[in-house]
Amino acid sequence: MRSQEQLVEDIINAMELLEAGNSELNKLASYLYIADKRLPNYLDKLNEFTTITQPTLKETQEAGKLLEQIAFLAFKGLKGVQSLKSFQSAGPQYDLLISGDDIPWKGVCKTLYLDWNQRDIIIEAKATKASVPDKQFAKLCNIMELNLNGAGLGIFFTLNGATGFPKSDSSRKRTVSDCRLRQIIFYAKTNKIIVVLDKDDILQLAKNGTLIQILTRKIRDLFELSGLSTVSAEQFQEIDLPAYLKILYDSPDS
Predict the structure, then answer these.
(1) Hey, which residues does 121 pair with through a beta bridge?
(2) Largest CA distance in the chain
(3) What DSSP element (H or E) covers 44?
(4) Which residues pair with 158 in a beta bridge?
């Protein structure tokens, strides 16, 4: 049996590899998310709501609660979560504020490009049929900058994304506007990250590893500004190449 000191040394060595971005740890990082077994039922209810063409006010309110329940079940599946809060503060309402203080949460932070002194994650759930407008995006920016200094990652949990972000069925966007522009400026100003999950992203969360994969891809896209929507978590690799390079990737070694 390994001694406690040896186990601690193994953990430290593993964390050093994770910090160095060792490609062999990509699969390990995905296991930092274990999907709650109750999620499929809640996701089915959400999918049913999205089929309603003109939901009533009551249906929209219930969908908002459902989206918050899904967010709660999903984010409590991250390794190392020790703090889960949803409350009305002296100022804004926090739909979900999560964090951790131990080594497993440090692994999550490293994977999501978060500094340890800004390791909190704030989630805003929006169950409206319309995309999140710039006004709502600006509100979360203000909360993270003025109210929650320890929050390094903000996440919009939505049905139809936010204005200005690339859609899955659209061609590459070479310009930025609306919420996408604000996301970029906010990151440049504060080094804090805000990403947007839509219905297609959320419906994948019943599988282990998917939340981590989706978030890391959306965060990397903020750095890269590819102009395309991020690919499904089921696609292990992201390949975005011009034809003369893609043919080299697709063809077998000679």
Answers:
(1) 98, 153
(2) 66
(3) helix 39-50
(4) 126
Please report the beta strands in the chain, taking only residues with DSSP state E, as ranges in sequence order. 83-88, 93-99, 120-126, 151-158, 193-197
- Give the confidence band of 28 by pLDDT, cuts at 50, 70, 90: low
- The answer to whether the Cα torsion of 200, 151, 130, 66 is positive or negative is positive
pLDDT at 92: 85
CA distance 170 to 166: 7
pLDDT, one tens digit per residue, over 106-126 is: 989 999 999 999 999 999 999
Distances, alpha carbon 157 to alpha carbons 20, 90, 132, 204, 251, in Å: 30, 23, 10, 13, 39
pTM assigned to the model: 0.83
Report the candidate in 70, 79, 75, 66 with the shortest Cα–Cα distance to residue 39: 70
For residues 74 and 36, give the distance between their C-alpha atoms in angstroms, rounded to a whole number: 7
Q: Distances from the Cα of 178 to the Cαs of 118, 132, 146, in angstroms?
A: 26, 10, 21
Residue 124's DSSP bridge partners are 156
Tens of pLDDT along 143-191? Answer: 999 999 999 999 999 999 999 998 877 778 788 999 999 999 999 999 9
